């Protein structure tokens, strides 16, 4: 099979889902996915060995999140994504808007904080370094909506509508760096909104919904812009290989439709997660208040009765 430059496949047969899902690993992402699964599994096993519980649902979310990254980066979807704008857009949308949500619902930071051993007095270990990072000014900046929302939007417009995209597509390290960037931008955007892990920026639930809806419409506008364009807008996909049997403008229209549709999918998933978290937060708050009332007995009622008695005494 003929490859050119950074590994762009130039003689791929016409795309079908079966061909796209054939195993064709990118070594960087394959090692990264296996490492993530191994570390998460180690953390869960460590908790179980000492008798601590870890929700199965979180493990499932994290594993599925890693598998979605592997799905678009370790199959021939990655090969087709080099020459088909529509397939690339599937990669982009999954790795930036679906994978981060699933990974965050797996609470990997919370697991690490619980599983990593506490360093001895006067020393600093991995757990202490993680805590220091979580409370750093850097994390406060990159999880603040003043940073996350513009970055989320710029990852579309400033990338695809400038020569930067073609530059990154021109080399394998550039392509890998772009995909890692998509994943990281998705993580920092969704983390303050619906992440389970602790973070420096954790607004109320109404503000979280506003942050979500502040970014999503721009994905829809981006998709519509691609669908309405009368000529190919991205140089890297202007001349698809003849073996694919596709038209560049038609493929771009499909890419726009995919970007537009994906602006709705994460919104629904995140809203469901937010409502679920909000409900359970209210439930926990009610339980805490009931426990506090049980501990205090009828002290508040007794105090109120004493107050009424004192008013009655004064009126005599």
Give a structural overview:
This protein has 316 residues and is mainly alpha-helical. The protein is 72% helix and 1% strand. It contains 15 helices and 2 strands. It has a two-stranded antiparallel sheet. Strand 1 and strand 2 (8-9) form a beta hairpin. Helix 9 runs antiparallel to helix 11, helix 9 packs parallel to helix 12 (205-228) and helix 12 packs antiparallel against helix 13. The model is unreliable at 1-8 (pLDDT under 50).
| Rg value | 25 Å
Distance between the termini: 103 Å
Helical coverage, percent range: over 70%
Class from helix and strand fractions: mainly alpha
Uncertain residue ranges: 1-8
Q: Provide the succession of SSEs.
A: EEHHHHHHHHHHHHHHH
The amount of beta strand, in percent, is under 5%
Entry keywords:
single chain; 316 residues; 72% helix; two-stranded antiparallel sheet; globular; mainly alpha
Task: Tell me briefly what this model is.
This protein is an all-alpha fold and 316 residues long. The chain has helices at residues 17-20, 27-49, 56-73, 76-80, 85-105, 108-115, 126-134, 137-142, 145-160, 164-169, 172-194, 205-228, 248-262, 265-296, 299-315, and strands at 3-4, 8-9.
